[in-house]
Specification:
Blueprint lengths: L2 H26 L2 H17 L1 H4 L3 H21 L1 H5 L15 H14 L4 H12 L4 H8 L3 H21 L5
């Protein structure tokens, strides 16, 4: 007798799984949900063996009613109201930028130790992308002075970074 319900359930699955799945896909347009709903309907049929003993038409009607109710329950659920499925992720993974942020803080802190004249040429050249000639015109100093300030500024910057534990 224990084999009989299992055999009936297998036969029920073979007979109705595909049509039920097609029905749910027509209702929802969601193949994954259709598989889940049909599986849940079969589990409910397994939990209610009296369904397996009914006439074929009554069993079919019961399964379609269960499937329709499961779809309705899903559509009424909070998950359906608040969640949206998508094939693409909303964010593309980004590399961890925390080290770059810490490095920029370290350099900014070291730049604070430079004199305003030295800091101006370093910031103008490295962050502003300006040439020696442009910096000379901007600060109204000779190009040689810009080069000299850059040399001593970089030396002082290297020392300031070494004091903070950065090795060259």
């Amino acid at each position: 007798m224990a084999q009989e319900p299992d055999a009936l359930l297998r036969a029920l699955h073979q007979a109705y799984a595909r049509p039920l799945q097609s029905y749910v896909v027509r209702l929802t347009g969601d193949h994954a949900l259709a598989e889940d709903v049909v599986q849940e309907a079969m589990v409910r049929a397994w939990k209610h063996p009296e369904v397996l003993a009914r006439e074929e038409g009554a069993t079919r009607a019961w399964l379609y009613t269960v499937v329709r109710n499961l779809v309705i329950d899903d559509r009424r659920s909070a998950r359906h109201a608040r969640e949206r499925t998508t094939d693409t992720t909303p964010d593309t993974p980004q590399p961890d930028a925390s080290q770059a942020v810490l490095d920029s803080w370290l350099v900014a802190d070291a730049l604070e130790e430079l004199t305003p004249e030295h800091r101006a040429v370093v910031v103008g050249a490295y962050y502003g992308g300006r040439s020696v000639a442009e910096l000379a015109r901007e600060h109204q100093i000779p190009e040689g002075t810009v080069k000299s300030r850059m040399h001593y500024a970089l030396r002082a910057l290297r020392l300031a970074l070494q004091e903070r534990g950065v090795s060259a």
